[in-house]
Design a protein that fits this description.
Order of helices and strands: HHHEEEEEEHHE
CATH class of the largest domain: Mainly Beta
Number of strands: 7
Strand content: 15-25%
Low-confidence stretches: none
Number of helices: 5
Shape: globular
Largest sheet: 4 strands, antiparallel
CATH topology of the largest domain: PH-domain like
């Protein structure tokens, strides 16, 4: 659904869609405001509980804002499904599955139409997933769990238009000289 042009009041359907999209951010902010009011109206232990609830509300609003920045809308080519830590992509021309434990590198190709996540396994197999694929919004949680990945850097790269592929994460090199005990 397209936003209303500048200076024009959005229709009821557009307003409902905007509220639905921003509901998690609004819920976090409402919780923070209620906690602020409670903290100002009480004392003692209740004030500390209200402060903790306020911090929780701000954290929820921050996480929801990151999710909004990550979402690129559906309707793109293919479908993404995640089961445990296994990413499955069914595309019109390609597809595949990758266990996140086998992931060696995560790149973003902003020049592709639409931009694509490029996932490379330890064995060298690659999977390209459009950022607009149906269900691709769930990839944020999967990628955020990668050790050492900087979510803000990933979101900044996602906002870029064009350019060369960007490496967002690489698996740590295995320690040398260590043996597994069996």
């Amino acid at each position: 659904m397209r936003p209303a042009p500048p200076g024009q009041i959005p229709s009821g359907a557009q307003a409902r869609a905007a509220l639905r999209r921003w509901r998690e951010v609004l819920a976090g902010l409402v919780l923070a405001l209620l906690a602020l009011w409670l903290a100002s109206a009480t004392f003692g232990v209740t004030r500390w509980i209200a402060a903790a609830l306020g911090a929780l509300g701000l954290a929820l609003a921050f996480a929801a804002t990151q999710r909004l920045r990550f979402e690129r809308g559906g309707g793109g080519p293919g479908i993404v499904r995640i089961d445990e830590r296994r990413l499955v992509y069914w595309g019109p021309l390609t597809g595949g599955a990758i266990d996140m434990g086998d992931l060696a590198r995560l790149d973003l190709d902003p020049a592709a139409k639409p931009p694509h996540w490029l996932l490379t396994t330890l064995s060298g197999e690659a999977l390209a997933v459009p950022v607009t694929a149906e269900g691709a919004g769930a990839l944020l949680d999967l990628f955020a769990a990668l050790p050492g990945l900087h979510v803000e850097a990933m979101l900044a790269a996602l906002d870029r238009r064009g350019g060369a592929p960007v490496t967002l994460w690489r698996a740590a090199a295995p320690a040398r000289g260590l043996r597994l005990l069996s």
